[in-house]
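Can you please make up a whole protein chain along with its backbone structure tokens because I've never seen that pairing?
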Amino acid sequence: MPITPVPAEQLSAVWPEVVPWIESALPYGQGDESLLDVLIGLARGQSTLWIERGQFAAVTQLQAYSRQRVLIITYAGGVNLAAIVRAFHFARAWCAVNGVDVLRTYGRPGWERVLGLQSAGRILQTRVS
């Protein structure tokens, strides 16, 4: 099956399948969201869920800045590394066709090597409360 975006009204049909993949990616985020927060963002159209049934799922946000459009992969997971790499290449091609200037992701350092990404810095944060 191809990788496709999931319309908000179809989330309930695929959510049980993708929960384990999204949930496994949450610890690599910045602690901004729970699984429920992700689902609410998808239902509100703030994020998009992309799936390849039985293989892969990703949550993205499209940001339009003054100088460039950026597709941010916030969470992703799949049945194996090959599925994730295949989906990443799909995302790059989708960006090129849809006028998106930058494909950005956050995650563990190994993605830099596996996906052939260039490090553009590090995300550093501290809790203030």
